[in-house]
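Worked problem 6 (solution included).
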Amino acid sequence: MPAYRLRGAVRATNGEIGPALIDEIVTAADRQEAVRCVNARETTPADEQVNALWLVDEHDNLVWSLRRADREL
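Solution. The predicted structure is:
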């Protein structure tokens, strides 16, 4: 089963992404399942610090991303 990587960081107002504060492995059968796993995951204290999340595949290709502001609308 492929392994994906969920990462999260603080995104500055100028768009610059800081160092990853969240770095978790997500194992899923495919990209769609990986995104479902990320969306269903429980929040952690580290989640409160970040305002940008993204998911990459094993080749570091972007699969999914979210700005916290988009979720709060």
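Discussion: Residues 6 and 38 are 8 Å apart (CA to CA).
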